[in-house]
Amino acid sequence: MFVLLSAKLFAPVSDASYRAASLVEILHTATLIHDDVVDDSMERRGFFSVYALWKAKATVLIGDYLLSKGLLLSLDNNDHQILHILSDAVRKMSEGELLQIEKARTLNLKEDIYYEIIRNKTASLLASACAAGAWSTTQDPIITEKMRMFGELTGMAFQIKDDLFDYTSDNIGKPTGNDIKEKKLTLPLIYALNNTSSSTRRKIIYVLKNENTNPEKVKWVIDEVEKVGGIKYTTEKMNTFRNEALAILRSFPENPERQGLEDMVVFVTDRKY
What is the assigned CATH class of domain 93-268? Predict the structure, then answer.
Protein backbone atom coordinates (compact mmCIF):
# COMPACT_ATOMS: atom_id res chain seq x y z
CA MET A 1 0.00 0.00 0.00
CA PHE A 2 2.81 2.43 0.82
CA VAL A 3 4.51 1.68 -2.53
CA LEU A 4 1.39 2.15 -4.64
CA LEU A 5 0.08 5.21 -2.78
CA SER A 6 3.54 6.82 -2.96
CA ALA A 7 3.56 6.17 -6.70
CA LYS A 8 0.01 7.40 -7.38
CA LEU A 9 0.59 10.49 -5.23
CA PHE A 10 2.42 11.93 -8.26
CA ALA A 11 1.17 10.10 -11.39
CA PRO A 12 -0.86 7.07 -12.50
CA VAL A 13 0.52 3.75 -11.24
CA SER A 14 2.85 2.12 -13.80
CA ASP A 15 4.06 -1.43 -14.40
CA ALA A 16 7.26 -0.39 -12.60
CA SER A 17 5.14 0.56 -9.57
CA TYR A 18 3.58 -2.90 -9.45
CA ARG A 19 7.01 -4.52 -9.79
CA ALA A 20 8.31 -2.30 -6.98
CA ALA A 21 5.40 -3.36 -4.75
CA SER A 22 6.06 -7.01 -5.61
CA LEU A 23 9.77 -6.61 -4.86
CA VAL A 24 9.04 -5.07 -1.46
CA GLU A 25 6.68 -7.92 -0.61
CA ILE A 26 9.13 -10.62 -1.74
CA LEU A 27 12.11 -9.09 0.09
CA HIS A 28 10.07 -8.47 3.22
CA THR A 29 8.91 -12.09 3.26
CA ALA A 30 12.49 -13.29 2.75
CA THR A 31 13.73 -11.22 5.70
CA LEU A 32 10.91 -12.52 7.94
CA ILE A 33 11.78 -16.12 7.02
CA HIS A 34 15.42 -15.48 7.91
CA ASP A 35 14.38 -13.61 11.10
CA ASP A 36 12.61 -16.71 12.38
CA VAL A 37 15.89 -18.62 12.17
CA VAL A 38 17.79 -15.80 13.89
CA ASP A 39 15.16 -15.53 16.66
CA ASP A 40 14.55 -19.30 16.92
CA SER A 41 10.86 -18.51 16.42
CA MET A 42 8.33 -21.30 15.95
CA GLU A 43 5.44 -19.00 15.02
CA ARG A 44 4.79 -16.35 12.39
CA ARG A 45 1.47 -14.50 12.06
CA GLY A 46 -0.35 -16.97 14.26
CA PHE A 47 0.79 -20.08 12.40
CA PHE A 48 3.81 -22.38 12.27
CA SER A 49 6.87 -20.58 10.86
CA VAL A 50 8.80 -22.07 7.96
CA TYR A 51 11.58 -22.66 10.49
CA ALA A 52 9.24 -24.70 12.72
CA LEU A 53 8.26 -26.95 9.81
CA TRP A 54 11.53 -27.27 7.90
CA LYS A 55 14.33 -26.30 10.36
CA ALA A 56 17.27 -24.00 9.67
CA LYS A 57 18.87 -25.36 6.49
CA ALA A 58 15.74 -25.38 4.32
CA THR A 59 14.49 -22.09 5.85
CA VAL A 60 17.70 -20.22 5.02
CA LEU A 61 17.61 -21.58 1.46
CA ILE A 62 13.95 -20.58 1.01
CA GLY A 63 14.78 -17.05 2.18
CA ASP A 64 17.75 -16.93 -0.20
CA TYR A 65 15.55 -18.17 -3.05
CA LEU A 66 13.02 -15.38 -2.48
CA LEU A 67 15.81 -12.80 -2.32
CA SER A 68 17.15 -13.98 -5.70
CA LYS A 69 13.64 -13.96 -7.23
CA GLY A 70 13.16 -10.39 -6.08
CA LEU A 71 16.52 -9.30 -7.51
CA LEU A 72 15.79 -10.96 -10.85
CA LEU A 73 12.33 -9.35 -11.03
CA SER A 74 14.01 -5.95 -11.08
CA LEU A 75 17.02 -6.88 -13.23
CA ASP A 76 14.90 -8.59 -15.89
CA ASN A 77 12.91 -5.36 -16.26
CA ASN A 78 15.83 -2.93 -15.96
CA ASP A 79 14.43 -1.41 -12.75
CA HIS A 80 17.96 -0.66 -11.59
CA GLN A 81 17.24 2.33 -9.37
CA ILE A 82 14.37 0.55 -7.61
CA LEU A 83 16.64 -2.46 -7.06
CA HIS A 84 19.30 -0.14 -5.62
CA ILE A 85 16.76 1.41 -3.23
CA LEU A 86 15.56 -1.98 -1.96
CA SER A 87 19.04 -3.55 -1.78
CA ASP A 88 20.15 -0.66 0.42
CA ALA A 89 17.21 -1.41 2.74
CA VAL A 90 18.21 -5.09 3.02
CA ARG A 91 21.77 -4.01 3.92
CA LYS A 92 20.48 -1.65 6.60
CA MET A 93 18.13 -4.28 8.04
CA SER A 94 21.08 -6.67 8.44
CA GLU A 95 23.21 -3.95 10.03
CA GLY A 96 20.42 -3.09 12.47
CA GLU A 97 20.01 -6.72 13.52
CA LEU A 98 23.76 -7.13 14.03
CA LEU A 99 23.99 -3.90 16.04
CA GLN A 100 21.14 -5.05 18.28
CA ILE A 101 22.86 -8.39 18.90
CA GLU A 102 26.10 -6.59 19.75
CA LYS A 103 24.46 -4.14 22.19
CA ALA A 104 22.21 -6.76 23.82
CA ARG A 105 25.25 -8.35 25.46
CA THR A 106 26.09 -5.31 27.59
CA LEU A 107 22.58 -4.04 28.48
CA ASN A 108 24.03 -0.55 28.13
CA LEU A 109 22.09 1.03 25.29
CA LYS A 110 21.98 4.77 24.62
CA GLU A 111 18.91 6.44 23.13
CA ASP A 112 20.74 7.36 19.92
CA ILE A 113 21.85 3.74 19.41
CA TYR A 114 18.24 2.59 19.90
CA TYR A 115 17.15 4.99 17.14
CA GLU A 116 19.92 3.73 14.87
CA ILE A 117 18.80 0.13 15.42
CA ILE A 118 15.13 0.74 14.67
CA ARG A 119 15.96 3.10 11.79
CA ASN A 120 17.88 0.26 10.14
CA LYS A 121 15.86 -2.77 11.29
CA THR A 122 12.34 -1.47 10.73
CA ALA A 123 12.15 2.01 9.25
CA SER A 124 14.49 1.27 6.32
CA LEU A 125 11.95 -1.12 4.75
CA LEU A 126 9.11 1.42 4.89
CA ALA A 127 11.48 4.14 3.68
CA SER A 128 12.49 2.05 0.68
CA ALA A 129 8.84 1.20 -0.10
CA CYS A 130 7.89 4.87 -0.29
CA ALA A 131 11.05 5.80 -2.23
CA ALA A 132 10.59 2.97 -4.74
CA GLY A 133 6.95 3.95 -5.29
CA ALA A 134 7.82 7.59 -5.84
CA TRP A 135 10.67 6.77 -8.23
CA SER A 136 8.47 4.43 -10.28
CA THR A 137 6.27 7.31 -11.44
CA THR A 138 8.52 10.39 -11.18
CA GLN A 139 12.20 9.38 -11.71
CA ASP A 140 12.83 12.51 -9.65
CA PRO A 141 15.64 12.09 -7.08
CA ILE A 142 14.47 15.02 -4.92
CA ILE A 143 10.87 13.76 -4.65
CA THR A 144 12.14 10.21 -4.10
CA GLU A 145 14.37 11.32 -1.21
CA LYS A 146 11.52 13.27 0.40
CA MET A 147 9.29 10.21 0.22
CA ARG A 148 12.11 8.03 1.54
CA MET A 149 12.38 10.30 4.57
CA PHE A 150 8.59 10.27 4.98
CA GLY A 151 8.66 6.47 5.05
CA GLU A 152 11.59 6.40 7.48
CA LEU A 153 9.85 8.72 9.95
CA THR A 154 6.64 6.69 9.70
CA GLY A 155 8.64 3.50 10.29
CA MET A 156 10.28 5.00 13.38
CA ALA A 157 6.85 5.86 14.79
CA PHE A 158 5.60 2.35 13.94
CA GLN A 159 8.43 0.60 15.82
CA ILE A 160 8.17 2.87 18.85
CA LYS A 161 4.43 2.13 19.01
CA ASP A 162 5.27 -1.58 18.81
CA ASP A 163 7.71 -1.22 21.70
CA LEU A 164 5.09 0.63 23.75
CA PHE A 165 2.76 -2.39 23.54
CA ASP A 166 5.14 -4.27 25.81
CA TYR A 167 4.28 -1.84 28.61
CA THR A 168 0.50 -1.82 28.17
CA SER A 169 -2.11 -4.21 29.50
CA ASP A 170 -4.41 -4.14 26.45
CA ASN A 171 -5.21 -7.40 24.73
CA ILE A 172 -3.03 -6.80 21.69
CA GLY A 173 -1.89 -10.26 20.75
CA LYS A 174 1.63 -9.64 22.06
CA PRO A 175 2.62 -10.81 25.56
CA THR A 176 3.09 -7.94 27.98
CA GLY A 177 6.68 -7.85 29.19
CA ASN A 178 7.92 -9.98 26.30
CA ASP A 179 10.77 -7.60 25.44
CA ILE A 180 11.90 -7.66 29.07
CA LYS A 181 11.87 -11.46 29.06
CA GLU A 182 14.05 -11.34 25.94
CA LYS A 183 16.36 -8.71 27.53
CA LYS A 184 15.53 -6.20 24.78
CA LEU A 185 16.25 -2.59 25.67
CA THR A 186 13.56 -0.43 24.06
CA LEU A 187 12.93 3.29 24.51
CA PRO A 188 10.63 3.14 27.60
CA LEU A 189 13.22 1.06 29.46
CA ILE A 190 16.20 3.08 28.20
CA TYR A 191 14.55 6.27 29.44
CA ALA A 192 13.79 4.68 32.82
CA LEU A 193 17.35 3.43 33.27
CA ASN A 194 18.72 6.90 32.52
CA ASN A 195 16.23 8.78 34.73
CA THR A 196 15.82 6.68 37.88
CA SER A 197 17.93 6.36 41.02
CA SER A 198 21.16 4.36 40.83
CA SER A 199 19.76 1.74 43.23
CA THR A 200 16.60 1.20 41.13
CA ARG A 201 18.72 1.10 37.99
CA ARG A 202 20.83 -1.68 39.51
CA LYS A 203 17.69 -3.61 40.49
CA ILE A 204 16.22 -3.30 36.98
CA ILE A 205 19.44 -4.54 35.39
CA TYR A 206 19.58 -7.43 37.86
CA VAL A 207 16.01 -8.45 36.94
CA LEU A 208 16.82 -8.25 33.22
CA LYS A 209 19.86 -10.44 33.63
CA ASN A 210 18.69 -12.95 36.24
CA GLU A 211 14.92 -12.79 36.85
CA ASN A 212 13.51 -11.86 33.45
CA THR A 213 11.20 -14.90 33.38
CA ASN A 214 9.63 -14.15 36.78
CA PRO A 215 6.20 -12.54 36.06
CA GLU A 216 6.18 -10.58 39.33
CA LYS A 217 9.65 -9.15 38.71
CA VAL A 218 8.76 -8.28 35.10
CA LYS A 219 5.63 -6.49 36.32
CA TRP A 220 7.77 -4.57 38.84
CA VAL A 221 10.04 -3.37 36.01
CA ILE A 222 7.01 -2.30 33.94
CA ASP A 223 5.61 -0.38 36.94
CA GLU A 224 8.97 1.35 37.51
CA VAL A 225 9.19 2.35 33.84
CA GLU A 226 5.73 3.92 34.03
CA LYS A 227 6.43 5.57 37.38
CA VAL A 228 9.54 7.36 36.13
CA GLY A 229 7.75 8.63 33.00
CA GLY A 230 9.09 6.20 30.40
CA ILE A 231 5.68 5.62 28.76
CA LYS A 232 4.88 9.34 28.54
CA TYR A 233 8.33 10.18 27.13
CA THR A 234 8.20 7.39 24.55
CA THR A 235 4.70 8.39 23.42
CA GLU A 236 5.88 11.98 22.92
CA LYS A 237 8.84 10.80 20.83
CA MET A 238 6.56 8.61 18.72
CA ASN A 239 4.24 11.56 18.07
CA THR A 240 7.21 13.73 17.10
CA PHE A 241 8.24 11.25 14.39
CA ARG A 242 4.61 11.00 13.25
CA ASN A 243 4.22 14.78 13.00
CA GLU A 244 7.49 15.13 11.05
CA ALA A 245 6.28 12.47 8.61
CA LEU A 246 2.95 14.28 8.15
CA ALA A 247 4.74 17.60 7.59
CA ILE A 248 6.71 16.11 4.67
CA LEU A 249 3.55 14.59 3.21
CA ARG A 250 1.64 17.87 3.46
CA SER A 251 4.32 19.62 1.40
CA PHE A 252 2.80 17.84 -1.64
CA PRO A 253 -0.51 18.84 -3.29
CA GLU A 254 -3.64 17.47 -1.65
CA ASN A 255 -5.27 14.47 -3.35
CA PRO A 256 -6.93 11.17 -2.33
CA GLU A 257 -3.55 9.38 -2.28
CA ARG A 258 -2.09 11.92 0.11
CA GLN A 259 -5.12 11.48 2.36
CA GLY A 260 -4.67 7.71 2.19
CA LEU A 261 -1.04 8.00 3.29
CA GLU A 262 -2.02 10.41 6.10
CA ASP A 263 -4.61 7.90 7.31
CA MET A 264 -1.98 5.15 7.34
CA VAL A 265 0.45 7.29 9.34
CA VAL A 266 -2.25 8.05 11.93
CA PHE A 267 -3.16 4.35 12.07
CA VAL A 268 0.49 3.52 12.82
CA THR A 269 0.39 5.50 16.07
CA ASP A 270 -3.25 4.96 17.06
CA ARG A 271 -3.50 1.19 16.43
CA LYS A 272 -4.47 -1.15 19.25
CA TYR A 273 -2.43 -4.15 18.08
Answer: mainly alpha
